[in-house]
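Worked example 2:
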Amino acid sequence: MKFDISKTVLWRRVRKHPDYMKTARENPIVTKAYERLKSGESLKSISLDLDIPMSTLHRHKVRLSQQGQLPDFVTCKRRDSTSKDDLKLKLAKAVQACVQNGMSQNHAANVYGISKSTLWRHLQKRVAEAEASMEEDEIKEVILS
């Protein structure tokens, strides 16, 4: 060590320096994916052809959409920006409306702005938990009698 500094510390300082230029090592497959996204191809076809995960392609598509590089006919659905706490609250209200007020799953999903499948899964989970607790109670009664 000529300058009494470890390689790791030196490398970190070099990368933080404003004059440091990162070398562009763009993967040719990713470049192809970008070109095909810009042309408006579906994520699924690109994913199957180039063997790139759909989530990665979606991230690239959102990035291109934000930069305004996608054609007008390409839609880019963004994930819901509501927080998890808001979603849990909406879900709890929808489940309560179905169970206690007799509201249909479809109507509750529309009123509270959640997907029908999510509501259905939580209602099924609730039914399964209720059945499991009933079975436990029956077993306890058999043991105690």
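The first helix runs from residue 7 to 16. The mean pLDDT is 85.
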